[in-house]
């Protein structure tokens, strides 16, 4: 190819070779050289063009050859396709013939098999008739199993007349077989059937092949036959009484022994025939006893409870015996549908019929309980030297409750037991009411009243602590839903009230003694009081009385309730002092100082008198309570003593501590000889009063 595509490029090249003008002399030589190269290049180009033309001709010939070859191939393909279509038609025709032959073969095979099975069914029916007649129950069981399998084969053809006919014949045969089996077992029980034990065992296998429903029907008929003499015997007038209850259960025990002897190893153990006999017996007995209870006009409680106790004992014995006997199958998922999985209800099967007729028993228990309460209350003695400073009647009462629950638990865990717990609640109320009544009666005997009230407080404490255990015992003796209804919170409150009544009586007694001392206090002219010295006589007399009184209660009350009572006493003494101060018309400075001294003396001696033998947290708590409670008396006396300005400034602090501040305000102002308008700064407290 020419490296110089234009004259411009050629000149540019020349200029490069000869940059100076002096070099132009040899330009002709260079041009000739270039022309020679150009000629050579043109020659090469002509050769390339020639080669290209040759190649193009060759390619064209090849394309022509390929087109001819393709046409030949297409023609061959068309020919092959036509042959294939002819072959496919031939194969389809052959397959259709083969399929028809195959269907015919299958139909022929099925017909032969069905015919064989049909012949087997006919044979089985004939043999079944024969063996049933001869009572060959082992063969009957096998034939039933085989016939069941064969019947499944013809389920889809059950509308075919021949199948319907043989099925109907089989059903009639099964019906007759069932009746025959029932007769055989009943006759065996009568002793008129000479069949051997092995034959009856085979009969049981046959029964299982006839299904669970028939097994249950057979066992029920056997049970009814066994129990029918009992039903007739105890339906007679001379036996229709509660006195024959134990004879009923003795009869059952004898019959079961005879049954075991006669039918040993006949029935499969897992059928639990004994269980069904007992259940049938219980059902009949329940109806007869209910009828007896309904017809009796008057019930003898002793006879009634004896019959019930015998019934409960019998039920418990049966239940335990059945659980032990059928332990292998009970509560388990058995693959054997004929095996017992749970016991029928035996406990309560008969005894529940007594429940609606036990009112006489409840009435008898109530009468005896109330008599017992009265007896133990009358026999109470206050043993101040004993270890337990409480009424013995309370312990006797709870012990009697325990016996009541134990007795009732032998008869019931439902309504009767629930009625017993109602009686106990009623007795607790009666007991607390009697104690409160007796407290009121003892007020005339001051020494006895103090001791008795302390005993009552300890007794109330014991009863409150014992009631939760009593409630738990009641719940354990009851079944749901009755157990969910047991609640003794009201009964606990009765003993709180009993305790409060005792404390109230003690405080009334203290007030009756101390009031005379405070009457002496009110006779003193506190406005003219000048001789301040030791504690006032009314305080000394009060302390002297308290020493004797607190000594008595300290020796009798438990520590917790002693502190509880002493706290109440301190509150009373503080209020007594404050109310007495408010009744004074006017108090001098010296009089106020004397009253403050009296309060201090009262606080000191209350702590001293009440001191326990051993220091404890309760003692420290009480000491703090004395200081805190009597601080109100101190605060009131100080407020009375203050100037008006100081009083106005300090009263709000007093009001923050004591809720009684609004009502105390007017009384304090009266003692200070002031009116409301003199202290307008305290107007918000007047609003509270109004």
UniProtKB/TrEMBL annotation:
Residues 7-379 form the Vps53 N-terminal domain. GO terms for biological process: retrograde transport, endosome to Golgi. InterPro entries: Vps53 (IPR039766), Vps53_N (IPR007234). The keyword Coiled coil applies. The keyword Coiled coil applies. Pfam families: Vps53_N. This is Vps53 N-terminal domain-containing protein. Keywords: Coiled coil. It comes from Paramecium octaurelia. PANTHER family: VACUOLAR PROTEIN SORTING-ASSOCIATED PROTEIN 53 HOMOLOG, VACUOLAR SORTING PROTEIN 53. GO terms for cellular component: cytosol; GARP complex.
């Amino acid at each position: 190819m020419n490296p110089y595509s234009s004259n411009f490029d050629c000149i540019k090249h020349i200029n490069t070779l000869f940059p100076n003008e002096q070099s132009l002399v040899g330009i002709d030589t260079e041009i000739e050289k270039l022309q020679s190269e150009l000629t050579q290049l043109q020659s090469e180009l002509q050769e390339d063009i020639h080669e290209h033309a040759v190649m193009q001709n060759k390619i064209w010939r090849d394309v022509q050859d390929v087109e001819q070859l393709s046409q030949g191939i297409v023609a061959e393909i068309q020919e092959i396709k036509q042959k294939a279509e002819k072959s496919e038609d031939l194969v389809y025709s052959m397959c259709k013939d083969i399929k028809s032959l195959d269907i015919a073969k299958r139909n022929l095979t099925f017909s032969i098999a069905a015919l064989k099975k049909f012949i087997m069914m006919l044979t089985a029916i004939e043999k079944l008739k024969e063996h049933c007649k001869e009572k060959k129950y082992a063969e009957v069981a096998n034939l039933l199993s085989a016939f069941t399998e064969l019947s499944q084969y013809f389920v889809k053809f059950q509308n075919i007349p021949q199948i319907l006919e043989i099925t109907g014949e089989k059903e009639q045969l099964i019906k007759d077989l069932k009746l025959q089996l029932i007769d055989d077992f009943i006759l065996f029980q009568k002793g008129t059937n000479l069949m051997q034990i092995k034959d009856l065992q085979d009969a049981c296998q046959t029964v299982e092949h006839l299904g669970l429903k028939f097994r249950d029907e057979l066992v029920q008929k056997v049970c009814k036959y066994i129990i029918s003499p009992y039903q007739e015997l105890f339906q007679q007038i001379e036996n229709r009484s509660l006195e024959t209850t134990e004879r009923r259960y003795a009869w059952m025990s004898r019959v079961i022994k005879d049954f075991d002897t006669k039918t040993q190893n006949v029935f499969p153990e897992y059928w639990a025939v004994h269980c069904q006999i007992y259940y049938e017996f219980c059902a009949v007995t329940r109806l007869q006893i209910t009828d007896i209870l309904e017809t009796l006009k008057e019930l003898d409680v002793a006879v009634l409870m004896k019959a019930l106790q015998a019934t409960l004992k019998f039920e418990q014995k049966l239940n335990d015996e059945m659980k032990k006997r059928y332990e292998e199958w009970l509560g388990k998922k058995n693959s054997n549908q004929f095996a017992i999985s749970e016991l029928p209800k035996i406990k309560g099967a008969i005894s529940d019929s007594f429940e609606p007729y036990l009112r006489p028993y409840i009435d008898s228990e109530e009468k005896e309980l109330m008599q017992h309460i009265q007896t133990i209350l009358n026999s109470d003695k206050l043993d101040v030297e004993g270890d337990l400073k409480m009424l013995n009647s309370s312990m006797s009462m709870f012990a009697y409750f325990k016996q009541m629950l134990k007795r009732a638990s032998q008869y019931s865990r439902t309504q009767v037991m629930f009625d017993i717990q109602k009686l106990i609640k009623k007795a607790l109320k009666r007991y607390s009411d009697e104690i409160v009544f007796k407290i009121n009666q003892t007020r005339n005997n001051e020494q006895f009243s103090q001791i008795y009230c302390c005993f009552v407080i300890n007794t109330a404490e014991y009863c409150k602590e014992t009631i939760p255990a009593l409630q738990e015992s009641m719940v354990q003796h009851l079944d749901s839903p009755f157990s969910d209804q047991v609640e003794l919170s009201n009964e606990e409150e009765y003993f709180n009230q009993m305790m409060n009544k005792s404390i109230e009586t003690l405080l009334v007694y203290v007030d009756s003694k101390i009031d005379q001392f405070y009457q002496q206090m009110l006779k003193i002219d506190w406005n003219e009081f000048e001789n301040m010295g030791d504690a006032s006589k009314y305080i000394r007399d009060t302390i002297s009385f308290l020493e004797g009184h607190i000594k008595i209660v300290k020796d009798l009350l438990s520590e917790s309730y002693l502190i509880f009572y002493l706290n109440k006493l301190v509150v009373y003494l503080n209020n007594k002092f404050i109310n007495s101060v408010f009744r004074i018309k006017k108090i001098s400075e010296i009089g106020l100082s004397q009253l403050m001294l009296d309060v201090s003396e009262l606080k000191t001696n209350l702590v001293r008198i009440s001191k326990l033998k051993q220091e404890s947290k309760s003692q420290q708590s009480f000491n703090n309570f004395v200081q805190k409670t009597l601080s109100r008396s101190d605060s009131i006396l100080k407020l009375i003593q203050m100037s008006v300005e100081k009083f106005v400034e300090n009263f709000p602090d007093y009001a923050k501590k004591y809720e009684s501040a609004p009502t105390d305000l007017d009384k304090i102002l009266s003692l200070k000889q002031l009116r409301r308008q003199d202290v307008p700064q305290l107007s918000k407290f007047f609003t509270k009063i109004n």
